[in-house]
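Subject line: Sequence and fold of a protein, written as structure tokens
Enclosed: The protein record, placed directly beneath this head.
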Amino acid sequence: MRKIVRFSAYSLLMGLIVGALYLTNLFFMRPVSIDHYLAKNLLVDMFDSPETITHLGLVDGFNWLTQHNSKLSLYDLEKIESDLQKAVDRRRIIASYTPAGLSDRQRITQKIALFDLDNEIRQTSDFRFHGYPLEQLGGIHLDLVEFMTDIHPIRSSAEAEDYISRIDQFDEVFDGNLEILNAQHGEGVHPPAFVFEHVRRQLNEFLAYGYGDNPLYSVFMNKVGILGLSDDVVADLGERLENAIDNGANRGFSRLLSYVDVHVEHANPHDGVWSLPDGEAFYQLRLRSYTTTDATAASIHQLGLAEVDRITGRMREIFNGLGYPTTESVGLLMNGLNEEPRFLYDDTSDRKDLIVADYSAIVAATKEAVGSAFRQLPRAGVVVRAVPDYSEETAAGGYYMSPALDGSRPGVFYANLYDIKQTPKYSMRTLAFHEAIPGHHLQNAINLENEDLTLYRKHGYGTSAFSEGWALYAERLALELGLVDNPYDELGVLQSELFRAVRLVVDTGIHFKRWTRKEAIEYMKNTTGMSNTEVVVEIERYIVWPGQACSYKMGMLKILDLRERAKTALGDEFDLKVFHSAVLDHGEPPLFIVEELVDRMIADQRH
């Protein structure tokens, strides 16, 4: 039986790098700094994950030594336990650094690391099996395929060989996940029935693919076809990949499908995690981790309701100005808007290409226009692509993938073009602002290109409260900068913000107030006017990712609150570029750290 080696030659390179850090300190008779200690931990974790090394593109030139491009990680019960012990040991050491002996930046770093480890330790200790390894959006069966088709490079015959080796290991990776799934079953934790049904359909679709339709095969052959290899070599690679798909990928998918078929009868009859063992405490921990606040589920629910009222009030004003009926709700009016042919693309064979081209034009124009609000724009480019066919039915409306550190791969804004009603023209600018510029791509690329950040601050911690909060703030910022010049596009921006406010209501509604999936769908559809397709995908996402959807609006509100605080304190001395630098130039910290950084900026500006 083939074996995925946890520690091999790539561990040697990791050891050499980590050893160099220690030897440097010993030579100069210095204790290991907290930055070096965290850098060492990060390198250990990175080199323990061949997928991470491939994604970052940092040491591809050393693949002859590391062999990382031909390996996949094995995640099983043993790995969970070792990760927990590692986290406990690291927390003890990080807490041992005396704040008085740290620089201001290091003290912030210590706070971030302790916050992150505290959440991780409690999650693994108290709620080890409360997640869903198999789910319709980010399950292992989808993540591996997307990693191979979108991230694994094929720039040479050697990298093509590595690709085949990785496909051959799918079944072993899935075996580790099945070990966890079976342990989860023993604890009485299962997702709702709709999750089983989505995953069953996805697995059956993969298993039904012919080689030509299988993305693992078709993407590979397209990439190999432009390498200039001989026909015989290409044919041999194709034949070997077919064998790997049969014996590795499809065998693994079949095992997952067998698990689903056997355990669907144990599906959770409830949708919220309140129904899991100690579920309310688990949900509060998820809120703390995702929002980086101690806000309760009850307070977040009330905040969401208040924001829904405020935003719908402004939308009502716009609709009144446009002459729409005053007797209809904002949700119904947005539903109607979404049916107007002038806002929809024709369902033609080239529809996706046309929409991608239009999105690309929006991104290019926005990049030219936002320079007045930032000290610098990222060097890395961003491209627009359609969500792959195999995942578009259950994927979110859009998402972003960061660029490679070596510049070999740009950032990617993926737009979901499954349903023509998912892409009304009045909402396109808003989604582009969020996913590309001045949203995710601007923030993420600036972070990756920031040479002043330590390795840990750049790559060791990230939170959706910051990243998603920034992206939602970016939509409002684009509106304030005049990048939305008609009332329909402003309705698109407001609908997006309303959507995130509604998320506060429905996420807490499902997981705290015990709403059903149907109740949450009805509330979101009636309030936002989003299409039924979009709403179902979103509600089902919140069910399998409890708490994450609250991070957007909580992060945005904190950034806006801090901006208003800075304006009030500095008056005419307030500089938007300086404020944005205070927010963006420190990695992706928790919101309580962002507040500390902005307060420091205000104090510095006053002197």
About this structure: The beta strands are 382-386, 398-401, 411-415.
